[in-house]
Design goal:
The chain has 329 residues and is an alpha/beta fold. 43% of the residues lie in helices and 22% in strands. The strands form two sheets. It has a nine-stranded mixed beta sheet, with helices on both faces. A five-stranded mixed beta sheet has the order 3-8-7-2-4. 48% of the residues are buried. Belongs to the carbohydrate kinase PfkB family. One of its GO terms (molecular function) is kinase activity.
Length: 329
């Protein structure tokens, strides 16, 4: 019997969100709706601009990172998770680790010399989020940061696509895949962001060639990855590389595929406030349900409901009141 349901690897980040106008977002120069990797100098310049223009619109720091958000959602949905990541020996690193421990997630990460990564999320009035990320010490995540024995004792390996932006990160992903395959652990991957798909197709191809059992992406990422113009065409092409997948389509729900069957699960109608972390939350809730013995359809219905509650609130993770809302929905 496996010790963990999900073993995740990804970038450990501390998030800070700002509610910004369309004009201010334009002034920053960062492309709306995408994630941009930047250096420490540019990140500090952006922080200074936002503090000057909309300090009263800033939210408190919160734990972040795509895979970490997914594992938190899975843990809150009843799964047992393990997370391998890299944090600096600073107050934000301690804050990050304390948050995941509070969620019942095990980790082999210990603070190391360096500074913890940070993600600035700018949320416009239409609830779209634009992210600017400085990876900090996460950029040095490598094979040495894996915990092979925990991975072997898990049902699913969950890979954050953002990791492949560095050579060391890609090597760590490939090593984790090798360990998982040798231990009979299923491998799940998220494409993470349209920018990642555009800039790192070769690296993603390498990961797919090793083998992926379940793919998570949104419809924009799916079409970019497959060089198609519709969700339906993208689904057909993806099936050639990975027959099991979930393509999230916002308010239109999700396209799921398992084996030789593809189907559409309708979305849940809500008025969004902040879409940050919606895809991460969906993946965590979905994988939790799979680990509990549910099928893809049941998992997708539950994950849709979970993500629909998240986007009605600011932030990328559930609060206690949101968990209560999910239980009663």
């Amino acid at each position: 019997m496996p010790t963990y349901d999900i073993y995740g690897i990804g970038n450990a980040l501390v998030d800070v969100e700002y509610r910004v106008s369309e004009d201010l977002l334009l002034l920053t120069g960062f492309p709306k709706g995408n994630m941009t990797l930047t250096n420490l100098t540019k990140r500090r310049s952006l922080s200074q601009l936002l503090e000057e223009k909309c300090k009263d619109q800033a939210l408190k720091f919160s734990g972040g990172g795509s895979a970490a958000n997914t594992l938190v959602a899975a843990s809150q949905s009843g799964s047992k998770a393990f997370y391998s990541c890299k944090v600096g020996n600073d107050d934000r690193g301690e804050f990050f680790l304390e948050e995941i421990r509070d969620q019942g997630i095990a980790s082999n990460a210990v603070p190391q010399n360096g500074y913890t990564g940070e993600c600035i999320s700018m949320v416009t009035p239409d609830a779209e989020r634009t992210m600017v990320t400085n990876l900090g010490i996460s950029e040095e995540f490598s094979e040495n940061d894996l915990k092979p024995e925990a991975l072997r004792e898990s049902k699913i390996l969950y890979i954050e696509g953002y990791l492949i932006s560095s050579r060391e990160g890609l090597n760590a992903v490939l090593k984790a895949q090798t360990i998982a395959k040798s231990a009979g652990v299923k491998i799940a991957l998220t494409l993470s962001d349209p920018t990642m798909v555009n800039n790192f197709k070769t690296s993603f191809n390498t990961i797919f060639n090793v083998g992926i059992d379940i793919l998570f992406c949104n419809d924009e990422e799916a079409m970019l990855w497959t060089n198609t113009t519709t969700r339906e065409k993208a689904s057909l092409v993806i099936r050639e590389s990975c027959s099991a997948f979930a393509i999230t389509c916002g308010k239109d729900g999700v396209i799921i595929s398992e084996g030789d069957k593809t189907s559409h699960i309708p979305g849940v109608s809500v008025t969004p406030v902040d879409t940050t972390g919606a895809g991460d939350n969906f993946a965590g809730a979905f994988l939790a349900r799979l680990c509990q013995g549910f099928g893809f359809k049941e998992a997708a219905i539950f994950a849709n409901r979970s993500a629909s509650i998240l986007v009605k609130h600011l932030g990328s993770r559930y609060s206690a009141s949101m968990l209560e809302e999910l239980k009663n929905s």
